[in-house]
């Protein structure tokens, strides 16, 4: 029987190497990447059956990458493997299109179970979070991460916010996003206006608090 094709994304090369060894027994690993933008590009090229990804990744976080992947390759299954044990993150991951959510501290056997479940069309959530995620899903959308949720921003605004919070300059951001410097400046101005934030330092704090960047 043909092995399912898996693409893996994590910004730690040692974790990727360990994951590859765990996954290769049952799946074909078609690629590994270390940032969200590389993940989207690789998924477009490789068309894997399954993607294992983290939330905290440079250039484009896992949640926003998942949203792009939903439009790009809706048939591809997504499993988050992350350190974020917050039910709010798990809820947002499923809303972004995930089929599975595991913690990096989960038992090794859980990963195999999650992969099998997801490839069979089921959803998998690590048992330690099940009750908390249900409770979180019933709360107002602003949830535990602040009065203004990042989903109030557009996808492009979240991209700009992450890159700003990573300390990247306006010209570099413009190059990464293939837009003009003026466009980047406009998005940054609108983000500050919408969030009622007035300094780059406070933008960075907001991005960290809301999981937009892993810094």
Ranges where pLDDT stays below 50 over 5 or more residues in a row are 142-147
Helix content: 40-55%
Separation, N- and C-terminal Cα atoms: 42 Å
Query: What fraction of residues sit in β-strands?
Result: 5-15%
- Count of β-strands: 6
> How would you sum up the global shape?
globular
Largest beta sheet, briefly?
Answer: 6 strands, parallel
Quick gist of this model?
The protein contains ten helices and six strands. It is α/β, with parallel strands linked by helices and 215 residues long.
What does this structure look like?
- The chain is globular, with a radius of gyration of 17 Å.
- It contains ten helices and six strands, in the order βαβαβαβαβαβααααα.
- It has helices spanning 13-23, 36-46, 62-72, 87-95, 108-119, 130-137, 155-165, 170-177, 181-195, 200-209; strands spanning 5-9, 28-33, 50-53, 77-82, 100-103, 124-125.
- α8 packs across α9 (181-195).
- The longest helix is centred in the last third of the chain and has 15 residues, at 181-195.
- The model is unreliable at 142-147 (pLDDT under 50).
- Helix content is 49%, strand content 13%.
- β1, α1 and β2 form a beta-alpha-beta unit.
- The chain is an alpha/beta fold and 215 residues long.
- It has a six-stranded parallel beta sheet with strand order 2-1-3-4-5-6, with helices on both faces.
């Amino acid at each position: 029987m043909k092995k399912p094709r898996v693409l893996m994304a994590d910004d730690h090369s040692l974790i990727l190497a360990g994951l590859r060894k765990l996954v290769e027994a049952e799946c074909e690993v078609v690629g590994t990447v270390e940032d969200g933008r590389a993940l989207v590009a690789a998924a477009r090229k490789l068309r894997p059956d399954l993607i294992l990804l983290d939330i905290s990744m440079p250039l484009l976080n896992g949640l926003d990458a998942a949203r792009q992947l939903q439009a790009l390759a809706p048939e591809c299954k997504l499993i988050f493997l992350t350190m974020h044990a917050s039910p709010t993150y798990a809820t947002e991951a499923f809303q972004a299109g995930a089929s599975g959510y595991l913690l990096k501290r989960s038992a090794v056997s859980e990963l195999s179970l999650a992969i099998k479940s997801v490839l069979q069309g089921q959803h998998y959530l690590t048992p330690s979070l099940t009750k908390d995620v249900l409770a979180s899903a019933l709360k107002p959308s602003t949830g535990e991460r602040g009065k203004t949720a990042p989903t109030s921003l557009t996808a492009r605004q979240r991209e700009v916010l992450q890159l700003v919070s990573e300390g990247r300059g306006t010209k570099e951001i413009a190059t990464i996003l293939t837009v003009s410097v003026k466009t980047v400046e406009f998005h940054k101005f609108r983000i500050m206006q919408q969030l009622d934030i007035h300094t780059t330092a406070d933008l960075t704090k907001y991005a960290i608090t809301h999981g937009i960047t892993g810094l």
